[in-house]
Amino acid sequence: MQPYLALLARASLAFFALTAYAAVHAQEGGGALGWNDEPPVVMRLLDQGYAAEFRGDRAAAQERYCAAAREGSLEGQYRLGRLLWVTSAPADHAVAATLLALAAQRGHEKARILLAGEPSGDQLPDCLKPSASPAEPAPEAVVPAEVVERYVAGLSPAQRRQARLVERLAPRFAVDPRLALAIVKAESNFDPLALSPRNAQGLMQLIPETAERYGVRDVWNAEQNTRGGLAYLRWLLQRFEGDVALVSAAYNAGAGAVERHGGVPPFAETREYVRRVLAFYRAGRHVAPDTQTLADARR
């Protein structure tokens, strides 16, 4: 009878532990209960991070969350920042402040609340720092079209509608739709009503000056906003000769900042932005749509 009772006790403890984990997991919005617009690889990393946090393996949780952040996950970025926020080490706290501020700027409400008005830092964790200058990424082929198609198909219906709009319009501006998607994902995550603390508005986060420059009368109209953003992106591609790192840095921080610094500016926000765009697009140089794609787009 004793072994049976011991086995029953262990089973009960396991059940309560799993129940507690599920409750925390649901509250955080992970797994199948939320964040279902993330690619499957990111979902797995976030789930593994939750599990590592629950069992007290801080190092493993930090590694998984950082891996998710490297894939462009806003939630992974927030969770890494939250994990470092509670540490007593000043260096970790400064990194956490940077991550939380970047997440808050991208619209993460929990990050904004946790930061609670504290000054943002300008330090990225080692796991998010590029091994080489972000202006000189290792040459790689652009992300295959079938990979992008699987990603778009996995978005929510509302996000997918905006992604299809971007894909349709980008070739008309001689912009690779895959680069346009990378920019829009980094800017608004396909939310046409996104508004940043710096008054960048809409799908491609146009500031009022840029919207006026490219004739956008209604920044909340997704098609007008996209056309304005693509026209600006085309101008940047010409100005920086198709260098994706410099173009994305200029889209984030301004062309003048890139030229003043002779490359990607040393701002944590901009470097993280460039890293996310390159992680999605993969190639260091822009690949213009082919002649047939351009002809089809102009019909």
What does this 3D model show about the protein?
With 299 residues, the chain is mainly α. The protein folds into two domains: 2-123; 145-297, Lysozyme (Orthogonal Bundle), CATH 1.10.530. The chain contains 15 helices and no strands. Helix 8 packs across helix 11 (222-239) and helix 12 crosses helix 13 (255-261). The longest helix has 27 residues, at 2-28. The radius of gyration is 21 Å and the shape is globular.
The overall pLDDT, averaged over residues, is 81
Structural class: mainly alpha
Structural domain tally: 2
CATH architecture classification of the largest domain: Orthogonal Bundle
Shape summary:
globular
Helix content: 55-70%
**How many H/I helices?**
15
SSE order, as H and E? HHHHHHHHHHHHHHH
Quantity of strands, as a count: 0
Give the CA-CA distance, first to last residue.
Answer: 80 Å
Rounded to an integer in angstroms, the radius of gyration calculated over CA atoms is 21 Å
How do you describe this structure in short?
This protein has 299 residues and is mainly α. The chain has 2 domains: 122 residues; 153 residues, Orthogonal Bundle (Lysozyme). 62% of the residues lie in helices and 0% in strands.
